[in-house]
Write a structure and sequence with these properties.
single chain; about 60 residues; mainly alpha; about 75% helix; about 0% strand; transmembrane; membrane; transmembrane helix
């Protein structure tokens, strides 16, 4: 109970720091959990990359033959 009491006092005395720590905790926790979940949903069929010549032609506006 002593730790919880100290934590309560800290939140009351420094609410901005406590909120920042909470936000940082989410920022560290979410990528560690969400990224593997998203990777598991990734489709097994990968879309092939376009040829580099098509990319260059699209960026420059010139058709290469």
């Amino acid at each position: 109970m002593a730790v919880m009491g100290k934590l309560r006092m800290f939140v009351v005395q420094e609410p901005v720091v406590a909120a920042s720590c909470l936000i940082a905790g989410f920022g560290l926790f979410l990528p560690a959990v969400v990224r593997p979940i998203l990777d598991s949903f990734e489709s097994s069929k990968q879309v092939p990359a376009p040829p580099l010549s098509d990319v260059v032609a699209g960026m420059t506006g010139k058709k290469q033959e």
